[in-house]
Amino acid sequence: MTSNAKAPEATGRTAPDLSASFKAYDVRGIVGQTIDATIVEAVGAAFVDVLGLGGQRVLVGGDMRPSSPDFIDAFAKGAAARGADVETLGLISTDELYYACGALDAAGATFTASHNPAQYNGIKMAKAGAQPVSSETGLKEIQAAAEAYLAAGSVAAVEQPGTVGTRDVLADYAAYLRRLVDLSAIRPLKVVVDAGNGMAGMTTPAVLGDQLLPGLPLDIVPLYFELDGTFPNHPANPLEPENLRDLQKAVVEHGADIGLAFDGDADRCFVIDEKGEPVSPSAITALVARREIARAKASGESEPVVIHNLITSRAVPELVQHDGGRPVRTRVGHSFIKAVMAEEGAVFGGEHSAHYYFRDFWNADTGMLAAMHVLAALGGQDAPLSELGAEYEPYVSSGEINSEIDDKAAAVARVREEYEGDDVAIDELDGTTFSAADGTWWFNLRPSNTEPFLRFNGEARDRETLESLRDTVLAIVRA
Asked: Is the pTM of this model over 0.70?
């Protein structure tokens, strides 16, 4: 523990094992089974103890899932019992939490299971300044301390417990984003937004509409803005193509310029062009990178750094270098991205999964800010999004293809034996990446840590090369 708080003493009860819900980057479980109010109260207390937050402000909010209000109250109760002064934020998106932790310089937590089905809920935690809490930065210790409280039977209050109050951060969050990207002078755009009954149904009107701030030249067509954690229309997971179909259809029917789809907690954003076709997250990464590099250079930076994970298109580092920036390649996963963002002082970072990170947002990810950059780029010129996006997608990508394999290491070894040679570079930054020396193709094989899957991602200069590469590699993997 990093504080002087006394750990709870066991009473002879068998300590519960919370490892089913404590993951590498957050907590996520099935309500009533692996996460409930008693567990959450213990986690709130452990959060304060492990991070040494007694006497300090702690923020807690949650998404629209039915269990979130009770969990907010339980976390606040546990945190206050251990001496923290808690401010409950009510309904928030995950990037609202990061905003609040950054702007208020306070640690916090939000209840969400992101894109998982309705029976799930979980906790994303951050230190002051929106620094992530992961298994490497306190999450394991929080799990152990919470298990000890549960074994003891209750959370013991300190001599001077903290207070519990409320705070609304939506207006300040919206105003902050508006200061980062000025949309007031763009050409008028018709924008269909699919909130998936998630938190973007609340944040979109606040940031892009005229609910709290002056109106923008945006005609917003709402899809599924009603906050409903049972997800009655479709899962709030835009990474799955079937969950984009309603948005694609609506964009075409309304003659819209662009479509935006957010996941349940609104920290990811996917983009659809005016033809109803998806614009890849790699293309969005490149587009936003170009804007952020130009802005950083205008303020005097000589070589702004942009982070990209190894699954993003090779077009991203090529464009960053072309525009005078320095690309830095990293592993997949937000804790890695955020750590490298901080180490490098990077202006921006992007992932193939549509997580976008900004230095001006405390190195945290925000789908809404990325969407605003895309709107600014589209509205600042006359071409349709399909043409604008094509500039950033010179290669053909496979997307992620999973193979269910018992011996994943043996499968990778077979592929390595086939491709190893002077004309292929191989690295193991994250999984195994094979790259043709002439730049015509690359592919990556990454084993899942939690499922019996080996994940293939590949890219080539033309579709014929990609399809041949894909079929050859998958045949070896699945042999």
From this structure: yes
